[in-house]
Amino acid sequence: MNSSTLSTILFAAFVAFTLVLVFRAGRSTKKSSDFYDGGGSFSGFQNGLAIAGDYMSAASFLGIAGTIALFGYDGFLYSIGFLVAWLVALLLIAEPLRNSGRFTMGDVLAFRMKQRPVRGAAATSTMVVSVFYLMAQMVGAGALVSLLLGISDPNAKSLIIAGVGILMIIYVTVGGMKGTTYVQIVKAFLLMIGAILLTFMVLWTFHFNISELLGAAAEKSGKHAAFLEPGLKFGKEIIDPTTGLLDAGKTLISKLDLISLGMALVLGTAGLPHILIRFYTVPTAKAARKSVNWAIGNIGVFYLMTIALGFGAAALLSRTDLFRGYKVDVTGCLMDAKGAAIVDGSANCTTLENVANLSADAKKMLVPIDPSGNVAAPQLAEFLGGGHGTTGGAIMLAVIGAIAFATILAVVAGLTLASSSSFAHDLYANVIKRGKASPEQEVRVAKISAIVIGLISIVLAIGAQGLNVAFLVAIAFAIAASGNLPAVLFSLFWKRFNTRGAVWAIYGGIAAALVLLIFSPNVSGAETSLLKLSEVGFRFDYFPLANPGIVSIPLGFLFGWIGTITSNESNTQKYAELEVRSMTGAAIGKAVQH
Amino acid sequence: MGSTEQDKVWAETQASPEFQDLKRSYRGFAFPLTFAFLVWYFLYVILTAFARSWISTPVIGNINIALILGLLQFVSTFLIMWLYERHSSHKLDAPSEKIRDHVDKELAK
Known about the structure:
The complex is a heterodimer of chains A (594) and B (109). Chain A has 594 residues and is an all-alpha fold. Chain A folds into 2 domains: 3-24 and 34-325 and 370-584, Sodium/glucose cotransporter, CATH 1.20.1730.10; 326-367, no CATH class. Chain A has helices at 3-28, 34-37, 44-55, 58-71, 74-100, 105-109, 115-149, 154-205, 210-221, 248-268, 273-276, 285-316, 319-322, 360-364, 376-385, 391-432, 439-463, 469-493, 499-518, 533-536, 549-565, 572-584. With 109 residues, chain B is mainly alpha-helical. In chain B, a hairpin with a 2-residue loop joins strand 1 and strand 2 (63-64). In chain B, strands 1-2 form a two-stranded antiparallel sheet. In chain B, helix 2 packs antiparallel against helix 4. Chains A and B meet through helix 5, helix 9, helix 10, helix 12 and helix 22 of A and helix 1, helix 2, strand 2 and helix 4 of B.
């Protein structure tokens, strides 16, 4: 039995098991509001695992391991940012949010404001952030499956994306928050087991000597000590090609880009709607705090293990394996980006087996099949199991591959739930029906919108297959940090904050992040841009940073502040209620009177 | 109970010394700690960007300052989590529950 078949069987088993859980959760759901918060009765430990399952996406598991494997130390920056970010959620957000809201981020934002404009803004940003994040996960699913199962047919990839989408719709519509939580708990458990197993095997190989592991990785990478230092991917020193000297201006921009990325990572998490609504699934603020503690414990241990996974892959696998090989034509000749055979010396065709013999110039023309190294972790598993073609290797590859699928499924379900909840609770019930919808109507709308949002993301993800997964995740984080975080923090802690401030912070922050992204090198001006310079011939990359956070996050706060001070509205009464509720949990779970 | 009377309960509770103490105890702990971990995190990020040669100095074998600083970010995160949990369970949970019970009783009148 090969690993593709085994992987498919294991994944099918995961799907079958979670579907049973979800249908049982669906049957045990009594009140209609359980759709949103799963009855609000999970324990801190359960919710902590579910948060970890909701948060550690395929981008964490495969992306960080891959980035470390290819670029060394710089990949570790993601691990640190994604973990430290949880302190914002722990110290400032989890408990007051649990105490003062019921189902959505909009509940807290609209608490002391005019309902319709603020809930409209909250629903918009929830859906924008979630849909970008959903696309990233689903594009990642398509790419991952094709890499692991060796499928390159684009139709088959689209079919897989559609399959993932349909599964997540079933999880959410049938199981609601309760079912989704179960799926996330199971996934978090599997992911931890998988990562612990791989880490143990890597450390065993290197006699539990981290220094030896790092040394082997540095040696194999060909970059030596530089592989263990920051600078191979982020904040590069840029050399002016004409003078051969350091280009101070471009180097500074490249370093600011690194700081900007760090800012979005650390401030984005606490503005992600699918994370925020998880705090509503526990009964008290104390339980919300405990769940963040458990989540930090899990996530921290997991991100520590990315060191072993990433450097282990770098030390044990060949570069060709990390890239999952290079593009070849039908005759097996290596191709350059334009599809021509790479000619080197006297040979007019070089095959994959001879890639090591290529000259340095010819090596530069190679086109990696997976330039981001997303398959580093699964490849590492195969190697540790005994290598390609062995039974042990096939089993390990299948197990880790199936865990990666499970990871994607749990995250997309959480995102779909967050956006459909916000659509039904904020937009439908409070904006369209002006608070006159019955709970049953609301939940029916939530389920319908889960189906619609699911179908839209399937279509978008199929269309976006060429996009870079990390880029889509970065957009989601930048928007969350620029629009949602200022609004949530001001709402909870600033007495003077008002409707205009909230609306301006959200729309202003989102707009700043999106506009800067459009005019960034992500979209135009380089060969790595969405619009390749050589293909379109024009550029509009007026904003030099790839990460907008360093400008758009302060702008989000600034818009919120200007909006607030230019409006006379101020609801001292409601702020008294919000403050007492958020600090104590009085009248918890009771609807706010307007 | 009408909404004006409810508003009165909220306003009176907010103004009470017990509540103000609780608020001060929370903010006085959480805000400086937030400031501190953000400064510490950005210091780390800025060092990785601008102090490349220093941060690349090996300390033990192949382990350099960059890796140690990165691991210290993990340590400080766990430490802050533990400090906040200790502060909350010792200083915040009991008074917060007391005020909550009082408010819920007033609201039920």
